[in-house]
Write a structure and sequence with these properties.
Elements lengths: L1 H17 L20 E9 L10 E4 L5 E3 L5 E7 L3 E5 L6 E4 L4 E7 L10 E4 L2 E4 L7 E4 L1 H5 L6 H5 L6 E5 L8 E5 L12 E4 L2 E4 L10 E7 L2 H4 L10 E6 L5 E15 L9 H13 L22 H4 L4 E13 L3 E12 L7 E16 L2 E15 L4 H5 L7 E3 L2 E3 L28 H7 L3 E19 L2 E20 L14 E23 L3 E24 L19 E6 L3 E14 L3 E12 L8 E12 L4 H4 L4 E15 L11 E10 L4 E10 L10 E14 L4 E13 L2 E5 L8 E5 L2 E17 L2 E11 L1 E6 L4 E3 L16 E3 L7 E4 L2 E4 L3 H10 L15 E3 L14 E4 L5 E11 L2 E11 L2 E4 H6 L14 H5 L30 E3 L2 E12 L2 H4 L6 E14 L20 E2 L7 E10 L1
Parallel strand pairs: 1-7, 13-16, 50-54
Antiparallel strand pairs: 1-4, 2-3, 2-5, 5-6, 8-9, 10-15, 11-12, 13-14, 15-16, 17-18, 17-55, 18-19, 19-20, 20-21, 21-24, 22-23, 24-25, 25-26, 26-27, 27-28, 27-29, 29-30, 30-31, 31-32, 32-35, 33-34, 35-36, 36-39, 37-38, 39-40, 39-41, 40-48, 42-43, 43-44, 44-47, 45-46, 48-49, 49-52, 50-51, 52-53, ...
Keywords: Cell outer membrane, Membrane, Receptor, Signal, TonB box, Transmembrane, Transmembrane beta strand, Transport
Protein name: TonB-dependent receptor
Membrane topology: Multi-pass membrane protein
């Protein structure tokens, strides 16, 4: 729209200069006699909010006809009475006034776009729509503001940007992804990630391949009335992304470079060597045996303390370069871009590298025929991630005593070889301990690589006035591989039985799709109609292969067949089940007098996941909007710039992942039987049903109701939006237990109902004060997630967090009626036993003579007997929390003064629980391999002892014979946090300066990311806990640290 206004301005200036009346330079419109008074000369420039000159703007002395239009550089010069008022105006912009106080030689008047005049157009499914016509819940994210967050991926740019959109970073690793959920979760077995649509092409639920610098606009479709047009794939919301296209005119070249220094400021305060030795001595007091005498009192102050978090961290450099070229003729336009990202990572030996290339080309074959090609290729590779909690828990010294001699062991020995822990029998105190630096430095051949290609081509025919046909063909290809060799040096690693190993993993997935649709638009003075109908078909396929072996003759061998131990070879592979979709869809929008708007959509999806009787599902939606601000009785109030009420209802579907569980499957089966006469076992081959199946398996149905209100005041300087939604997911695809007499234990069927409901509020304020421009954007949302009906409780256990010497973490989460999906599951703690009398009293009341299922002693946790049977058993477990925040919010502040600009972003959550496996491990001396591990410094200082009976933590033991570290509410931590995620200062160089370097624009900035986290959880790690598994929401097992980043960047345009 700015370009259109620019060309109109050039035309107006040209016309003004062309006629005989204006045979000389641009003159004032007229001159009139005025009362004799002091006259000032005012020279200045009219620009837009980006600092671009506005050509042909009217500048006039208010109340007179003394004025002129700006020239090609937006400049003007007028003689004005002192005390008069200058008024600057231009079509599509809000009028500005300036008081004349005297001579002004460099006045800059900034005009702000008038949102009512420049009708904003947003991208919706299979088309575009004026924002004023929206009847559903759609949020636009300003791509220009997003880029001021300095994001390296889209998730980083969307954090805290939109109400109802939860964006949680799953890890701080250089390749760390994000978990994005829109309005909660709607399934227990499938994905809750939204669908991404890039330039009209459905690219799935992953957007890591897209370079944020290529993004032109983002729209987030949240309610079913907006997403139903995508049917089965729109169940979790839709994020519409439009990338940058070419434009007519001379070519423009843009280049940007960004350099960041990253620091690990997310370290856990664990015990140093002396404090750890104190903890060892206390554990021995409670029954352990000290096998490393270096932890005795006689060596206090002599131990070489190693801070493994420091040793495993480094100051890392991140480099990000982007180059693009855009331009075109009347017939052909193109935008080409390439980007390169290299992030070293703050953990030693970790890195992530990404190369992106994109080409968008459009061509007008005839006035009514348009074709286009979009190509996006990404290659990425990363090495080594790591878990900072596990580094923190490494024993903080490698010193040991052997045969009465004290050995101080550094990380690197004087001869250059690696230092190591004491290596003895399986009973060794350091069993399984590694020199972490040595392990990282010698495991350099563990690289993951992936490639992504998204290619699409379109043909558009303008058949008649208002009638267009468009067809889009696309190919989406993804391949990921891992090539990893792990060497073994018995002087470096703690386990003597470990051997070198080599593994190769390869996955390939592809999707071919074709979508064709017709759009028709018609209008007259009172009515507007827009209709769309289309057809879609897609086919997905995938193959995978995993192979590994161990014990090779030499380190440089990378061939599985050459292993010394053929029994270690393990190979698996196969082809994923093909999934096919066939769909028909349509949308009708009707507007009466631009006040009353109706939108209706329908989509009929067919999926190969289901049997012939339920293969197709129909998903309708309908929504209404009433633009009250267009009613005279509202206009007369002179209060609202915009006032609109919205209401909508709709359904979407979910087909789950590729499955054949609706079709009976047979497999070969050997039956062994004993023949009495022959006196031996006989084998008979046969065919049997493989699994119990439900032939009536059908779609999950996601039904959503939304009511919204949009308001704006003061010429749209202040705006509000409020939504209330109820999202019901029914006929969930889950496994249900069945009678064993059937020959099976479970069946995959439709059974269950999940509900998400909440409020969403967003507000924005933008104001200009002379050379100052200030903006504030704030959003917040509430969410309540509930399993309304799921039948038998659904338990979930992550095998990565299992039982360790009594640490019972079986069934981490439970989904049952009346509670949130994936609620935390465990025992409740009533405090700490202070003396043996308390224990004896409870034991006396137990039918087994033992109240707790462990070797209980004073200083141990006291668990609550919930079922009242007098003893602690599995039946006393219950729901102890959930990982869904009650409130999520975001705040964005922007300001500019002349050529300087500033932005700050914050986001956070409240009312969230974190199920902290990290807290359990950081208060347990017992390591994964049976040896000791380091613990939180606060735990050693504030654990229960006879001398400290008020300690907040249970007694220190090496083993956990009372199961003090089993899954319980002792490890449910408050996960509320507020993060200052980004602050940026920028400066745009004056155009008259950069033009000498043949540049059109130049800007530099400095910024900082992940600046501050305010949370009571910080002692255990970062409270921002993400997981791609719905049933592990809010579960913290330790992660790669979230680094503090300080950046400097430049961008230039030629």
């Amino acid at each position: 729209m700015r370009n259109v206004m620019k060309y109109l301005g050039i035309m107006s200036v040209s016309l003004a200069c062309a006629g005989p009346l204006f045979a000389t330079s641009v003159q004032p419109f007229a001159s009139v006699a005025v009362v004799q008074q002091s006259v000032a000369t005012v020279k200045g420039q009219v620009v837009d909010e980006k600092g671009e000159p506005i050509i042909g703007a009217n500048v006039i002395v208010e109340g007179t006809t003394n004025g002129m239009i700006t020239d090609l550089d937006g400049n003007f010069s007028l003689q004005c009475p002192v005390g008069s008022t200058l008024k600057a105006s231009y079509i599509g912009y809000l009028t500005r006034t300036v008081k004349v106080t005297g001579n002004m030689n460099a006045l800059k008047i900034i005009l702000k776009e008038d949102a009512e005049t420049l009708e904003e157009v947003v991208v919706v499914g299979y088309g575009t729509m004026k924002k004023s016509d929206l009847t559903g819940s759609v949020t636009s994210v300003n791509a220009e503001e997003m880029m001021k967050r300095n994001p390296v991926n889209l998730g980083q740019g969307l954090q805290g940007a939109a109400a109802g959109v939860s964006v949680i970073r799953s890890s701080g690793s250089p390749d760390g992804g994000f978990n994005i959920r829109i309005r909660g979760v709607a399934t227990v077995n499938g994905s809750s990630d939204p669908l991404y649509v890039v330039d009209g092409v459905q690219v799935g639920t992953s957007i890591d391949f897209l370079n944020p610098n290529d993004v032109e606009s983002i729209e987030i479709l949240k309610d079913a009335s907006a997403t139903a047009i995508y049917g089965t794939r729109g169940a979790n919301g839709v994020i519409m992304i439009t990338t940058k296209n070419g434009s007519k005119g001379k070519a423009q070249v843009n280049f940007s470079a960004n350099y960041s220094l990253q620091f690990n400021n997310n370290k856990i305060d664990v015990a140093d060597a002396d404090l750890f030795a104190k903890a060892v001595r206390e554990s021995c007091r409670n029954g352990s045996v000290m096998t490393n005498l270096a932890f005795g009192e006689e060596y206090i102050g002599k131990l070489n303390s190693i801070d493994w978090q420091d040793e495993m961290s480094r100051t890392a450099l991140q480099q990000n370069y982007n180059l693009s070229a855009s331009g075109g003729t009347e017939a052909t336009q193109a935008n080409l871009s390439v980007g390169y990202l290299n992030n070293e990572g703050v953990v030693i030996e970790s890195y992530f590298k990404r190369l992106t290339a994109r080409a968008n080309i459009t061509h007008k074959v005839k006035d009514f025929i348009h074709v286009g090609l979009n190509l996006n290729y990404t290659h990425a590779q990363h090495h080594f991630s790591g878990n900072m909690r596990s580094y923190a828990q490494a024993i903080p010294t490698m010193d040991y005593v052997e045969n009465g001699v004290f050995y101080s062991m550094p990380i690197v020995l004087p001869d250059g070889s690696w230092g190591h822990y004491k290596q003895e029998s399986d009973g060794d105190i350091n069993k399984g301990a590694d020199n972490l630096v040595a392990a990282a430095k010698t495991r350099t051949d563990q690289i993951s690589k992936w490639d992504r290609l998204v290619a699409s081509a379109f043909l558009q025919l303008d058949i008649a006035k208002g009638l267009t046909f468009k067809t889009i063909g696309s190919y989406n290809y993804f391949t990921k591989g891992y090539d990893g060799y792990t060497p073994y040096n018995p002087r470096t690693f703690g386990s003597k039985d470990r051997k070198d190993s080599y593994s190769i993993n390869q996955n390939q997935n592809s999707e071919i799709a074709l979508e064709s649709f017709v759009n028709y638009d018609w209008s007259n003075a009172h009515h507007r109609v827009s209709a769309m109908a289309g057809f879609s078909i897609s086919d997905t396929d995938g193959v995978w292969l995993n192979t590994s072996a161990s014990d090779f003759p030499a380190d440089n061998i990378r061939q599985i067949s050459l292993t010394n131990d053929p029994s270690s070879k393990n190979t698996n592979g196969g082809r994923d089940l093909k999934t096919r979709y066939q769909s028909y869809f349509g949308r009708l929008t009707y507007s009466l007098n631009d006040r009353y708007i109706l939108t209706a959509t329908v989509r009929r999806d067919g999926s190969s996941n289901f049997g012939s009787g339920n293969r197709y599902g129909t998903f309708p939606s309908a929504s209404l909007a009433w633009r009250l601000s267009e009613e005279n009785f509202i206009k007369n109030l002179n209060l609202f710039s915009n006032l609109k009420i919205r209401a909508g209802w709709g359904q979407t579907g979910n087909a789950g992942s590729g499955t054949s569980l609706s079709v009976p499957q047979l497999s070969s089966l050997d039956c062994m039987y004993y023949v009495m006469a022959g006196g031996g076992m006989m084998n008979a081959a046969g065919i049997a049903q493989q699994k119990e199946i439900d032939t009536n398996l059908k779609w999950e149905t996601n039904e959503q109701t939304n009511i919204g209100l949009d308001m704006a005041f003061m010429n749209n300087e202040l705006s509000f939006s409020v939504d209330y939604f109820i999202r019901d997911s029914k006929d969930l695809l889950i496994y249900r237990q069945i009678r064993p007499s059937t020959g099976f234990t479970s069946v995959y069927t439709n059974a269950g109902h999940i509900r998400n409901k909440g409020f969403e509020v967003s507000a924005a304020w933008n104001k200009s004060f002379g050379d100052w421009n200030v903006g504030v954007r704030v959003n917040g949302s509430t969410l309540k997630n509930e399993a309304v009906e799921v039948g038998d409780p659904i338990f979930y256990k992550n095998n990565s967090y299992g039982t360790q010497d009594g640490d019972d973490w079986d069934n981490h989460s439970i989904t049952q009626n009346g509670y949130a999906v994936g609620s935390y599951y465990g025992w409740k703690v009533a405090g700490i036993f202070q003396n043996q009398q308390e224990i004896d009293a409870l034991n006396a009341q137990s039918p087994t003579g033992k109240y707790q299922d462990g070797d209980t002693a004073p200083g141990d946790f006291k668990y609550i007997d919930l079922n009242g049977d007098g003893q602690i058993t599995d039946e006393d477990r219950t729901v102890i929390g959930n990982g869904f925040p009650t409130l999520s919010y975001g705040l964005n502040l922007t300001a500019s003064y002349k050529n300087f600009d500033f932005s700050m972003n914050m986001y956070g959550v409240a009312g969230m629980d974190v199920y902290s496996y990290s807290a359990a491990r950081l208060t347990s001396m017992y390591g994964p391999d049976g040896g000791y591990q380091n613990v939180l410094a606060e735990y050693v200082k504030n654990a229960w002892t006879l001398e400290n009976p008020n300690g907040k933590y249970p007694r220190i033991t090496k083993g956990d014979h009372n199961k003090n570290h089993r899954s319980s509410d002792a490890f449910i931590k408050k996960g509320d946090y507020l993060k200052i995620s980004n602050i940026q200062f920028g400066y745009t160089f004056p155009k008259n300066l950069v033009k000498h370097a043949k540049m059109e624009n130049a800007r530099m900035f400095v910024s900082a990311d992940n600046i501050l986290t305010l949370s009571s959880y910080n002692k255990w790690g970062d409270p921002e806990v993400g997981s791609d598994r719905v049933l592990l929401t809010g579960f913290d097992g330790g992660r790669y640290p979230f680094p503090l980043s300080v950046s400097f960047g430049v961008s230039v345009q030629f």
